[in-house]
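Structure Section — protein described below
Tokens — whole-number codes for backbone shape
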Amino acid sequence: MRNATFAPADLTTFTGLNHLGLKVTSQRISDGLIELVCEVSEPDQYCHECGCWARVHDIVVRTLAHAPMGFIPVRLHVQVRRYACTGCGRVYRQDTTAAAARGHKLSRGGLAWGLHALICHQSSVARIAADLGVSWGTANAALLIQGLTQLVNDATRFDGVEVIGIDEHVWRHTKTGEKYVTVIIDLTPVRNGTGPARLLDMIQGRSKAVFKSWLAGRDEAFRAGVQLVAMDGFAGFKTAAAEELPAAVAVMDPFHVVQLAGDGLDECRRRVQQEMTGRRGRKEDSLYKCRRLLHTGEDLLTEKQRTRLAALFAHQAHTAVEITWCVYQRMVLAYRNPDPAKGRTLMQELIASIQQGVPAGLDEVRRLGRTLAKRAADVLAYFDHPRTSNGPTEALNGRLEHLRGIALGFRNFSHYALRALLHAGGFRSHTHSHL
């Protein structure tokens, strides 16, 4: 503070209007509104057509909403001079496009503030509109147009993408209409440790054709740059990636692989329960009581839990459940092995052991073996390319759920896709001066 240099108080500089080519001439502060009367800083007294001197014809007022001060809206009353040329007689007005685009009701400063609040603070459009003192429709239209032109349509947005994740997402919970969308995520920052995943695009529907058409619509440089594609077990995504990205390696996400084994374990437990009792499990049934314990990693079990499992597996009728549980635990240990090479060996041995020769009565293990054998290359690819998973994709799906909560739902898909890109497209560093 002692060595700092301070300039005299200047309301024009304080409100940032000097960057918009405006100068404050007077002010009025009332309850719930700050009004500033402004004029264009630079005069424009020479005709743009003939170059002759022009006289002031009259003054018109252009009203703009500006960035608020605190939670108080700021209204600009820009006095725009209209000139009449003394040579050709042409009447023209001062150029105010530095302050706001033609026909817009928000100043460029107010628009930048609103986009910052939408992306960095994840504010709702209703909250931004209230702070700007404009209607929801005015704020929403201006913010979406600005976000689309300034951020989403940026030609460099797809540059440097080497790893992508693909997954489906439920965007509407209604009985009619398309419920699912396909989301494409850039996982390159996660794999390189440079930042979080970001949303690249969102397409209505979930099928091979949807993903294939999106890939076909990208330029050759993008498709050549993609090295890895993380996905779940849906064969349509696998086929589309193989056809459009022949040089890329498909990686089946560990979460979904373990989920296959976990679902098989649950199905086996329910089947054995039904065969033994002729009904679904009840709270006093030993198999039902251990339903969650069966999904706990063996290395995380307490002594009490180990005792419970030993008592469960001591029953001869539970042999199928025990074998399926062992398969599940072997898969978990393979993924948890700190050495990827050893983990790959363990997974390869597991796939080979259940691929064929599985005894009768282990239908779930047989089905899992067929699935893993069919996608063995994709499953094992994870160990060759660690940290390539759809985990960040699932996390980003959670952020989209949060967005729908902020907006209280969406009915228009185009609106939802654009808001989702602004919300999770990695644009915070573009709009936040401290990032």
The two ends are 25 Å apart (CA to CA). The longest strand covers residues 54-69.
